[in-house]
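Below is a filled-in request sheet from our internal design queue. Each sheet records the structural input a requester submitted and the sequence that came back. We keep these sheets so that new team members can see what a complete request looks like end to end.

REQUESTER: design group, bay 2
PRIORITY: normal
MODE: inverse folding
CHAIN LENGTH: 207
BACKBONE (tokenized):
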């Protein structure tokens, strides 16, 4: 397809779950916090986010993770630490799960996301206003999964990241056009979803 990334995600031997961080201080303030400069040291989970995570863990019904890999932003690190403590796992940070960088929109109101998403629908390779392209996000996230496939076999790996990167990953892994990443069912804060790859996506529902 014309707007797809050139990197193909092979059949996976591991089972992957993707999780968005809990409600954060950035969410509470309606801010875009997408740069490591601001996101790695500040804007952690809000009190609401802490409550969401506890509820999510208390009602966990998916496969039990054997490994947790997370974005090194504070809100995702704190989310991964909560999950890790619950399952007695030590989370591993990886920069390839970072938030999508929104360039000039960083530190501005989150209402500005809509303009970037409208451009994504026309061209998932755009870098307007210094924004990281959808295709670039796919490249780094696919690279992480390929590395995990080389390291592990038949494990359940939880990837803790951010809304936009996870919507993009779910879209690309299932073979859909990257321009349609906003058509994914929304991942709310603390939501978890299985990552379905390629042909396996047809007729598959959450466990």
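RETURNED SEQUENCE:
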């Amino acid at each position: 397809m014309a707007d797809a990334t050139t990197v193909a995600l092979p059949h996976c031997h591991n089972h992957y779950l993707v999780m968005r961080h809990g409600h954060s201080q950035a969410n509470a303030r309606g801010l875009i916090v997408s740069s490591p400069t601001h996101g790695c040291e500040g804007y952690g989970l809000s009190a609401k986010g802490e409550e969401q995570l506890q509820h999510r863990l208390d009602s966990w019904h998916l496969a039990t993770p054997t490994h947790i890999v997370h974005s090194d932003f504070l809100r995702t690190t704190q989310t991964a630490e909560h999950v890790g403590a619950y399952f007695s796992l030590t989370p591993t940070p990886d920069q390839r799960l970072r938030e999508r960088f929104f360039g000039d929109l960083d530190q501005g109101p989150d209402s500005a996301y809509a303009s970037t998403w409208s451009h994504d629908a026309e061209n998932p390779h755009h870098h307007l206003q210094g924004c990281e392209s959808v295709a670039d996000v796919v490249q780094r996230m696919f690279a992480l999964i390929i590395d995990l496939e080389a390291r592990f076999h038949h494990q359940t790996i939880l990837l803790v990241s951010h809304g936009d990167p996870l919507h993009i990953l779910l879209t690309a892994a299932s073979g859909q056009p990257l321009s349609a990443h906003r058509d994914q069912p929304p991942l709310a804060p603390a939501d978890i979803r299985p990552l379905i790859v390629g042909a396996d996506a047809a007729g598959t529902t959450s466990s």
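SHEET NOTES:
- The chain has seven helices and five strands.
- Confidence is low (pLDDT under 50) at residues 201-207.
FILED BY: M.R.
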